[in-house]
# Entry
Amino acid sequence: MKHIFNKGKDSTKPTLLLLHGTGGNELDLLPLAGRIDDEANVLSVRGNVLENGMPRFFRRLAEGVFDEEDLIFRTKELNEFLDEAAEKYDFNRDNIIAIGYSNGANIAASLLFHYQNSLKGAILHHPMVPRKGIDLPDLSGKSVFIAAGTNDPICSPMESVELQSLLEKANANVELHWEERGHQLTVQEVEVAAKWYRKVILK
# Structure
């Protein structure tokens, strides 16, 4: 997978896995990583799927309707890429925090839904529930921050609450933060996510 790896100053800190939104690329969220933790490794990945020339992490059939078969395949592909990247760049495979926006947040949530040990935790900006009606692995010890919009036209508040509930039922520790700027990734929610990261992940 096309990506950027920036080695951090402190190898004991998590590796931040950056996952962009539809039409983005591996450069988009680099400034965000610096706001969360400027001493951590950064692994920023470009989605392998193109939709009308726009990179995504998995196909969709329509707005808000995922191609489930492709989602499962691409989630496995990303998980295996993380295994390879940890070996190549010599970082701790068990200490990865995903930071995803929109489509990137959805693939990060899908990693949690399908692979118990893929991530240590995640910061999910405006995610949806990646799959419904499946049993999640035991996510004890995993911490997740969800930033959602009370007026998000793509992801309803009800869906954000449902995602929180599903993760909590799988024993994850979840914090849900609300904004009022639709589907936008706001400076305010990034600041709240950074505080959560320092309080929960670096405790």
Notes: Helices lie at 30-36, 68-89, 103-114, 157-169, 187-201.
